[in-house]
Write a structure and sequence with these properties.
By secondary structure, the protein is of the alpha+beta class. The chain folds into two domains: 144 residues, dinb family like domain (Four Helix Bundle (Hemerythrin (Met), subunit A), Up-down Bundle); 86 residues, Nonspecific Lipid-transfer Protein, Chain A (2-Layer Sandwich). The protein is built from eleven helices and six strands. The strands form two sheets. A four-stranded mixed beta sheet has the order 4-3-5-6. Strand 3 and strand 4 form a beta hairpin. The protein is globular and about 50 Å long.
Length: 262
Amino acid sequence: MKPTYAAVVADLSAEYAELDAIVAALDDEAWSLPTPAPGWTVGDQVRHLAFSDARAREALADPDAFEASKGTNVGAAVQRALDEARSLGPREVLAWWRDERSWLLDLLEGADPARRVPWYGPPMGVVSFATARLMETWAHGQDVVDAVGATRVPTARLRHVADIGVRAMPWSFTVHGLAVPTEPVRVELRGPDGDAWAWGADGAASAVRGEALDFCLVVTQRRHPADVRLAVEGPVAEQWMAVAQAFAGPPGAGRSKGQFSS
C-alpha cells in the first residue's frame, strides 16, 4: 500500500532529524574529513543539503523565481553554491540547514498533494518532490556516516528511497544517453523489518532481488553494484544496475568497485 502524503512528509522530517543528530555531535575537525565523494568533506555534504533544501523551498514558495534562476547547468550551479558556502563555519552551516528544512517542511505540510512543483528537469508531483528530498538527505547522509564511521540503523524509510530508485529507471538510461528498455524489470526487496517489497511484473525475465539497503545504496550511487549482495538477473537488469541513478542532474561518478564491500 502506498504511503499517504502526510506519512512521506513525516518520514522526511525524521530523516532530517536523524542526520542532524549525527552531524551536530561532530567537532569542527570532523566536519573537514573527506567523504567518499571526491573533493567533498563532511561539511560540504551538509552545505549541499542546505542549498538543495533552500532551492526546494523556493520552488514551492515562488515557482516563477525558481524557474528564472535555476539555469541549465545543474552541476555548475551545485558546485558554485558549494564554493560560496565554504566560507561558512560548521555551526553557521548547521543553523542554515535547520532553517531551510524547517521552512520547507512547513510548506510541504500545507501543500496540496495534487500540486506539481518545478525542479531540475521536468516538474514533479509534490509527493515525489518530498520523496526526492528524503532520498537526497539519506544519500548524502550515507557519505557522512561513511566518512566519520558512524552507525546508522536502516529503517522502513528506505522504502521511499527504493521506490524513487525504481521509478527513476527510465531516467537512469536517458541521462546516460541510452535507449530506455521496454522490457519490464521485477524488483523484490527485503525491508529492514523483514517486510517484502516488490515492483514490476511478477515473472519478468529480468529481476533485481535482495536487501533494500543494498538496492538503495546502488540506485543512489553510494556503492558499486559489485560491492553489495543483490541478485541481478537478465541483461536489462544488469544494464540498469550499472547506470542506476535516482537523483536529478548529470550522470554521477558513483563509487569505484572495491571501494566498499558488504
